[in-house]
């Protein structure tokens, strides 16, 4: 499931209601006000296939994917790797 990240206003409201940082961190992970984003079903399916592949599931034996789907899955893996590298280099 893809959850909408909290806005700065959301975080501030939570800080006002829960001043203890330990409780805030715990409750943030269980927050019910974060709504699922609208992600196209095909994108969500490709991301799920990518997770399965990362976990070691042999997709070629497990399901019959079209060549186009394999190419799309490769593009998803590439895009996630680029995002991961960008995130690592942006951190101090």
Protein described:
- This protein has 92 residues and is mainly α.
- It folds into 2 domains: 1-38, no CATH class; 41-90, no CATH class.
- It is built from 5 helices and no strands.
- Helix 3 (41-54) packs across helix 5 (67-90).
Largest sheet: none
Name the structural class.
Answer: mainly alpha
Distance between the termini: 29 Å
Amount of helix: 55-70%
Dominant shape: elongated
Low-confidence stretches: none
| Count of helical regions | 5
Rg of Cα set: 18 Å
Content of β-strand: under 5%
Determine the mean pLDDT: 80
- Give the topology string: H per helix, E per strand: HHHHH
Number of strands: 0
Number of domains: 2
Task: Explain briefly what this protein structure is.
The protein has 92 residues and is an all-alpha fold.
Please supply descriptive tags for the structure shown above.
92 residues, single chain, 2 domains, mainly alpha
């Amino acid at each position: 499931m893809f959850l909408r990240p909290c806005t700065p206003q959301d975080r501030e409201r939570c800080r006002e209601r829960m001043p203890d940082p330990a409780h805030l961190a715990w409750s943030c992970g269980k927050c019910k006000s974060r709504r699922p984003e609208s992600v196209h079903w095909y994108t969500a399916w490709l991301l799920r296939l990518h997770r399965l592949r990362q976990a070691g599931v042999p997709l070629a034996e497990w399901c019959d994917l079209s060549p186009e789907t394999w190419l799309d899955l490769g593009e998803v893996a590439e895009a996630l790797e680029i995002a991961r590298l960008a995130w690592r280099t942006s951190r101090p």
